Amino acid sequence: MTIIAHISDTHFDGSERAMSRSRRAMDYLRGCDVDVIVVTGDLTDHGDVEEYDQVRSELVADVPVLLLPGNHDDRAAYRRVLLGGEGAAPINQLHRVGGVVFALCDSTIPGQHGGLLAPETLTWLQGVLADAEEPVFICLHHHPIRVNNPLLDSIRLQNPDDLAAVVSASPMAAAVLCGHAHAAAAGTFAGVPLIMAPGIFSTTRLPWTTTDELAWSNTFDRDDIPGLVFHVLENGQLTSHFRTVPA
């Protein structure tokens, strides 16, 4: 059995608020018996080096903590601080933990909020799946399916069909994990489960739960309790548990 803790959208911005919400989540997870923690993007709010210094010091645990970039991140600064390298190419990473392969895909478009999996990323993912002898969790920031919020759906993954073609061709694909929408949600994609982690920094309001006309200024709820997901993979069966972070 492999237990995966899944959080997203920490948005470190130098403020005490962002720091305290992420610390609350990480303090809780460090006391849990999990095998790995996955953070699906928007680690920082502005992509500044100082914000990545916070990421490096705060998103740590006694188990592997796997990170990938989101649209608020900056590839060059991310690579310099977190990976000790240089360059602005997509940051795609492969990790193996507890009998599971994690393919961390960079879905960012520099300077834009929407997402795209570049041809080199899709080719890389195809190779990961072809070589895999263990279940593969495909992780990216941008959601590839609609979440029924017009604002968020306007900045989702732009080429979901390309990703679907790669995922559906492989029997080793176990699930797709993402963030970006700041919403706890689950669906299916290319024949596998798709699970979105709620935002640590904030959550999003659903259009049918309010009479307000939602705009970018009021879509994000900064007072809601941060949440996370536990994914349990046992004998090929995946179960996902959605939880709020205890105070």
UniProtKB/TrEMBL annotation:
The keyword Cytoplasm does not apply. It comes from the Bacteria. Signal peptide: none annotated. Gene3D superfamilies: 3.60.21.10. It holds the Pfam family Metallophos. Residues 4-183 form the Calcineurin-like phosphoesterase domain. Keywords: Hydrolase, Iron, Metal-binding. Belongs to the cyclic nucleotide phosphodiesterase class-III family. PANTHER family: CYCLIC NUCLEOTIDE PHOSPHODIESTERASE CBUA0032-RELATED (PTHR42988:SF2), PHOSPHOHYDROLASE (PTHR42988). This is Metallophosphoesterase.
